Amino acid sequence: MPRRTPRFTLDRLRTPGRFPGFLKTASVCALIAGLLSPLSQVAAAAEVTAANDHCGGQCSDILPPGENGNATLAQILLNQAFGTQPDHAEDQLGPYANLAKGYPTLTNATINTFFNDASFGVASDQVASTLSPAGRSDVTIVRDKKTGVPHITGTTRYGTEFGAGYAAAQDRLWLMDVFRHVGRGQLTAFAGGDPSNQGLEQQFWRNAPYTEADLQAQIDNAVANNGTRGQQALADANAYLAGVNAYIDASDSGRYFPGEYVLTGHKDSITNAGTIDHFKITDLVALASVIGALFGSGGGGEVNNAVSLLAAQEKYGVEQGTQVWEAFRERNDPEAVLTVHNGQSFPYATKPASPQGAALPDTGSVTSQPLIYDATGTGGDATATATAATATATALSSARRGMSNALVVSGQATASGHPIAVFGPQTGYFAPQLLMLQEIQGPGISARGASFAGLSMYVELGRGQDYAWSATTSGQDIIDTYAVELCQDDYHYLFHGTCTAMDVVEQKNAWKPTTADGTAAGSYTMRVYRTKYGPVEYRATVGGKKVAYTTLRSSFMHEADSIIGFQMLNDPDYVKSPQTFQSAVQHINYTFNWFYADSTHTAYYNSGDNPVRASGVDAEFPVWAQSAYEWRSWVPATNTAEYTPASAHPNSIDQDYYISWNNKQAKDYSTASWGDGSVHRGNLLEDRVKKLVAAGGVTRASLTKAMADAALADLRAEDVLPDLLKVINSSTVTDSAAAAAVAKLQTWLTAGGRRTETTAGSKTYADADAIRILDAWWPLLVKAEFEPGLGTGLYTAFTANLPIDEAPSAAHGPTGAHAGSSFQYGWWSYVDKDIRAVLGESVQGALPQKYCGTGTVSSCRDILISTLKTAAGKTAAQVYPGDTLCAAGNQWCADSIVQRTLGGIKHGNISWQNRPTFQQVVEFTSHR
């Protein structure tokens, strides 16, 4: 019988499910009796000896909820009815959650209470099983007792990759299938028409509407352009797919395949009729397009930028309006926290002295290009319409959900003299998790870490023999918007003077109710009009001329190219130094910040194919689709161009420390999203790490504690609230309600301004009233502070560029609410700069005027006190209205993290932390 996680660890009350109310206890018991018999894989224990491990037992990692992301039908039914968990489905969730209250007493000796030992190999007494997949003699998959992580060891390259594919399917087959269908725009037809499925496929397919021929061409080009490594990558991918498909066949005949295939109608639980489609190589490109769009494609938003610029110019006039817009845009704010903080400049996407080619829309003429056509049933009802609108807004925003953080300290400041890193990607929380852990040892490959399911032929974030690496989303602008002039009709455009028909790419989906998803029948067609300048996203007029606005991404039609960089990162004969590490990640065309640590050195590099724009083109706004304004040396047929050289990308070796939380990379290096100003969540890391480095003697425990402390901090409380209270307390607060609220806020601030439980498992915040007050106050004070001065039109336009808040209880893009990641986007810099200006303090990069109370302390104070009183009077139920998981007024639950179900197994919610999903703590003791 699968074990059951104790209730005190996780909150099992009112856990949401993807399978609505179809399970009854009696029927479950009857089904279980007949389903516990399918063949399971049994293998004898064997010893695996670690080789070339230079970490000295000081490498650790964690990836909740657990390694096992597959569950048979019987296991799903048991979980739905009784809460039981398959082995290793949840055993990393408790340790991950417990760090939130356990970090204050953390020591080097207790790190692995909250993390896994990430040493190479498995001790002989810790081997749970050994498998030779498909009977092969050239590869074994050893799983450890504690976490069930696969340790793949091959004697041939083919066997190694075959084993990696087999292990991936063992742990994530259903999830891999879900996301290949997301990438192909076929999720609803595969998994059901639930609105969340509709939104997911629409969001991603809009940005990557590929045909089968497009997918294959990307593989062919990646192989052809990369010589021997390209050929090796193709061979590795084919071996990996052979392993995946071998597991599909074995699990099908053995009847231990994921139970979701039965629940969604693809397999019959009694007769075993139905099929699980084999994976093919183009599926890998479809998967890569989803991951790249979600985490590695900075840019876009040029049309929204144009709309807000026009609103500013309408209110203030062209010259002053442009100045106001630039101030709020904060392209190169002098107070922004930087990853490369030595003063080195890396100019990119800066404002040109004399802008050329701008194609700003006529006021009020912009409309979004529809994606959905011919909708029927639940594909066209009110819920579907709202879902489509949200998906469109998310897909077209420049506010990419960056997530991920890194803290890296040079050996000069550590107790041991060796560098220390605490880093990882913040990829949201899912069940099963998007990432999976693995160790791969074979010819030309030696690594342990995390990889996205279905793309795990290499470790993508992890450690090698004597080095470790990780990434954060960087968000520099690799997406431009072009205004293509229409001709003949709405579906032809001028390309280099010739009237050219738009290509039409369609995906027709239909669904009907299943056991897993009871959504009534429906259908629709997703239709994208593609030009040589990319897909059409908007329609408008410019100077009275009808245009289509298209988005061109440098990684469009190049989703497979990054495989070479990951191959290099796994190759111990390639990565031997910070310089060779930087060379490897230069082959990754997605927009990431990459960090490195070995026993002596640290390094940083910002990756991505940054196009060289034509002279005078401002990357912030749409430009005319004309030869003069195209990327330099752009070839439409292959979407290739001249890219900025490696030396122009922010990079560094052996800086005293590095921090990154999706903040500005370096001086003069512009990112596409708004909000890189004086207050950014990166400050939460910068302030703590800088203090540690100044004191010296940094340890793995002290750096982990700095991360964990920042993970509980309310950015608004730590970096903005002190100045707000300074204004309020500029004279005695006589109103009793306001005074009580101020006292609560001050007490919370003195305690550290953290959103943390009173005691572990209490599900009640310390200083709960103060947190409620600030959550209610922030949107009220921002509106009252800025809307009178900006005017409703411009204020609304700016909120479309940058939301005013991203508190833990808010929704978070494609991951939805309860997603952990918080305080990435908000108006905290604007409030900070404005309040400091009102107080008469020095402000670099100040806003063009004082907004709060038109600039006087007394009037500003009146606004703050008035809005504070209103906020303090709001009940918890008003501030936290409740959802399918949480009752109205349940503050802790509103913040809590949920593993969003992508399959049949559910997990309880855990207390909020703002930290990476997969995380490493590393300190190497020696080098080859």
Task: Summarize this structure as a short list of keywords or feature phrases.
10-stranded mixed sheet, 928 residues, 34% helix, single chain, alpha+beta, 27 helices, disordered N terminus
Give a written overview of the molecule.
The chain has 928 residues and is α+β, with helices and mostly antiparallel strands. It has 27 helices and 30 strands. Strands 3-4-5-12-13-14-15-23-24-26 form a 10-stranded mixed beta sheet, with helices on one face. Strands 7, 8, 16, 17, 18, 19, 20, 21, 22 and 25 form a 10-stranded mixed beta sheet that branches. It has a 6-stranded antiparallel beta sheet with strand order 2-1-30-10-9-27. A hairpin with a 2-residue loop joins strand 17 (489-495) and strand 18. The longest helix has 28 residues, at 227-254. It is globular, with a radius of gyration of 27 Å. It starts with 24 loop residues before the first helix and ends in a 6-residue tail after the last strand. Residues 1-49 have low confidence and may be disordered.
Short description:
The protein has 928 residues and is α+β, with helices and mostly antiparallel strands. The chain has 27 helices and 30 strands.
The biggest sheet, with number of strands, parallel, antiparallel or mixed sense and barrel status, is: 10 strands, mixed
Count of beta strands? 30
Which consecutive residue ranges, at least 5 long each, have pLDDT under 50?
Answer: 1-49
Mean pLDDT, nearest integer?
Answer: 92
Structural class: alpha+beta
Number of helical segments with 4 or more residues: 27
- Gyration radius from CA atoms, angstroms: 27 Å
Shape: globular
Major beta sheet, strand line-up: 3-4-5-12-13-14-15-23-24-26
Estimate the strand proportion. Answer: 15-25%
Helix content: 25-40%
N-end to C-end Cα span: 46 Å
